[in-house]
Amino acid sequence: QSALTQPASVSGSPGQSITISCTGSSGDVGSYKFVSWYQQHPGKVPKLLIYEVNKWPSGISSRFSGSKSGNTAFLTISGLQAEDETDYYCCSYAVSGTYVFGSGTKVTVL
Amino acid sequence: EVQMVESGGALVQPGGSLRLSCEASGFIFSNFWMNWVRQPPGKGLEWVANIKSDGSEKYYVDSVKGRFTISRDNTKKSLDLQMNSLRDEDTAVYYCARETYGGKDFDYWGQGTLVTVS
User: Fold this and answer.
1) Which end of chain B is flanked by fewer CB atoms within 10 Å, N or C?
2) Smallest Cβ distance to A101: which of B47, B62, B107?
3) Nearest C-alpha neighbor of B80 from the set B30, B11, B6, B26
């Protein structure tokens, strides 16, 4: 049940695209379609951005997109905006009915 | 409107016990798996435990097994987390989170309650 590995920080200029990786194992990311992504602004509750690797909940901008390859999932933010500057976490369903979150990535808009 | 309100957070000494509660409203509570997720101050999210809609299945992160117990009362629309043998590293904001119906993600979260072990 080790945390999924995410880069500590990713940065980009307004309008650019950035991608955050989330690396797990064959016991979680590699075996299930149940990878989700959450955005958390300081002092706020996490917000679901992407579920089941690449699906959008109602009301979420299509600037956020997800994908997966092997044991690694990815979140891409297109057309980066100032309001995207905050923390992002991946999460995967794992063996034995548990979940594991990623270590978190701070996105900075230059 | 879906709402979940946690309570019970407090300052407790190492080795002590605490019981957290989450009161739900705005949805059919008995249809959903429910979870506890925690976040130490300034750190990342950690999934703690979950319980099936009817309470028949429960799962825990290894670090709390044998110390924490998740439970629910569908008649009262409430979710609990009994925490025993508390350690410094259990210090965190504890969130109640609902699993998406038929899915494996968390679509609604409570505002959280702070547990400080010191």
Assistant:
1) N
2) B47
3) B6
Q: Name the one residue in this structure whose structure tokens are 């900075």.
A: A108
Q: What is the pLDDT of residue B47?
A: 98
Query: Shortest CA distance to B89 belongs to which of B60, B49, B116?
Result: B116
Burial class (CB in 10 A: 0-12, 13-18, 19+), A26: exposed
Q: Give residues with Cβ within 8 angstroms of A61, minimum separation 6.
A: none
Q: Is A98 in contact with B59 (Cβ distance < 8 A)?
A: yes
Which residues in chain A have Cβ-Cβ distances shorter than 8 Å to B63? 1
- Torsion angles phi and psi, residue A15, rounded to 5: 90, -20
pLDDT, one tens digit per residue, over B25-79 is 999 999 999 999 999 999 999 999 999 999 999 999 999 999 999 999 999 999 9
Mean pLDDT of B82-102: 97
A16 Cβ neighbours under 8 A, 6+ residues apart: A80
Instruction: Say yes or no: B44 contacts chain A, CB-CB below 8 A.
Output: yes
- Count Cβ neighbours within 10 Å for each residue of B31-46 and write b for 16 or more, e otherwise: ebbbbbbbbeeeebbb
